[in-house]
Amino acid sequence: xxxxPAPRIPRVALIGVSGYGGxxxxxxxxxxAKNAIxxxxxxxxxRDHVPGIVSELREGGTMIYATAEEFFAKESGKIDLCLIPVxxxxxxxxxxxxxxxxxxxxxxxPLAGSLEDVAAIRKAEAACNRWVAVGFQDLYALEARWLxxxxxxxxxxxVDEVRMIGLxxxxxxxxxxxxxxxxxxxxxxxxxDSPLNNAFAHFVNLCLFFAGPAQDESARFFVESAELYRAxxxxxxxxxxxxxxxxxxxxxxxxxSHSTAQTRQPEISIRGSAGRAEWWHExxxxxxxxxxxxxxxxxxxxxxxxxxxxxxxxARLNDPASFICTTGIAxxxxxxxxxxxxxxxxxxxPSSVVDWTADNSTQSEIxxxxxxxxxxxxxxxxxxxxxxxxxxxxxxxxxx
Length: 400
Prior knowledge:
Blueprint: E1 11-15, H1 21-33, E2 38-43, H2 51-59, E3 63-65, H3 68-75, E4 81-84, H4 91-100, E5 104-107, H5 115-128, E6 132-134, H6 142-152, E7 159-167, H7 172-175, E8 185-186, E9 189-190, H8 201-210, E10 221-230, E11 239-246, E12 251-257, E13 264-272, E14 276-280, E15 284-288, E16 294-298, H9 302-316, H10 327-343, E17 345-348, E18 354-359, E19 364-369, H11 372-382, H12 391-399
Parallel strand pairs: 1-2, 1-4, 2-3, 4-5, 5-6, 7-12, 10-17
Antiparallel strand pairs: 7-13, 8-9, 10-11, 11-12, 13-14, 14-15, 15-16, 18-19
């Protein structure tokens, strides 16, 4: 009896190798070293800026294209998986084009800048009989899916509330790194770039996933209030507190900022009717179950989660049961972001409460809003609105 033939090595393409594309390029390099993929083509629009990468890929037999249009025209029907780590405004256009060219897709998070673009992707996905995986890497950690299974089984009772906080100071250079950072739109498409749609998008998405009604579904969260502020000179906000609820009754609270002196790594607190779960990014997860037992287990690093993501997406090519972050899961994150912009109004912090401090690592400056980290911490602990006031005013109100 003859054995079945080994699966064919996936034929992969990469659109973009600069910026965040460099992270995907490294994943590709590692897969090539294991003979796990064949990199058939790459789109590099700035070839003069990365001659070393161009030479490296060409020497490995990769065809280099100067435009996505040329790539899709020449490689239609020849690629198993197209990797799309580009600006948010290009996610929908390039993903739809890849699907129509017969390619499955791994697109970087978020899925798109608007629900309209998400709908276009999902329509093309169904029409072309291909799939799209979204680069919310934390979701690919086995621990995330284990916790989701346990939550659905009632390990902490009914999930009553999910809160998330994260403080990652960002210098001026962060919003000057490209032409769409911190912008509402770019290149004719929605971006809605903000902490909720970029740096902390992973954790908003995790919260929605943990509270989802089915194992591979996210909760639909209805935004009730959105306090949006900015210290940076951008279109969008760099600080937010968002509150609301899902149809199931689960409450949500998100608090994030790029304008604090302090760093606070993302934390997720899941409060149940008979227990609690805590998720500390890249550190550990702690579960206090209905019987009072305490379980603690370590969480993977971001780099490990990215590798798990890439492995899962490659496995999906041969195994439809291999988990991916689907467009259905990722759509709920985009729904929240779009709702936040409808409900909230961005307010600038008064210049008198913003201290600009030197950031030696970027040769730039970070805005540090006086008392903001403390205010966010208190709001997180209570699940209340931020209601930010400068420290002097807050002290006066407390004593009056």
